[in-house]
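User:
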Amino acid sequence: MPHALITGASIGLGRAVAFELARRGWTLTIDARHAGPLAGTASALSELASVRAIPGDVADLAHREELAAAVAAAGRLDLLINNASDLGGSPLPRLRDLESEAYEQLLRTNVIAPQQLIRVLLPAMHVQSVIINVSSDAGVDHYETWGGYGSSKAALDHQTLTWAAEEPDFRWYSLDPGDMRTAMHQAADPDEDISDLPEPETVAPIVVALVGSRLPSGRYRAAELIASLAERAGSQ
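Assistant: Predicted structure:
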């Protein structure tokens, strides 16, 4: 069975994608910072698939080494989804108010951790392996108070496509899932009404479809992928 590692998988999009993969027979390794919610997600997933849950922060070297050891024990890695992210404050601060410590933590989680995790996992990957780094429209567009988070996602976009140039045997996707009804989105602006936003479960099937699409490495928006994947399927 194919094996996937998903970071930040206890809630939101990471959790939704984990369930989509589990229903398709994937073996899963999942992580998240908070052990309780992660254990609850793992328990629910275990009714569908084999799952190993490893709590911890991807910004910590020791935790990344623990994830790498779990992948090595599994024998191979078919899919890595770097979904774990730091927001940079709640509510989001303007750049003039973004303290150095908060910005550094944001960059450690959103930029450095994915790159360092990929480095230690490369030996377990093969020519069919897929890496998805979850990005944001804030990495391309410019919104008040989103400068810290957005700049980290812009760096992640650049990093992803550089990986694609340097390691062309794998498929590399930077994916903008669009706005969703998640705890992170609510934390960005606690006073915003996000009840009209789509649930992560509506986006997860698009993520899974991208994995099997064999589209070229690149940056993709989930909203645009629906049409692209349908057109691709129709031409085959």
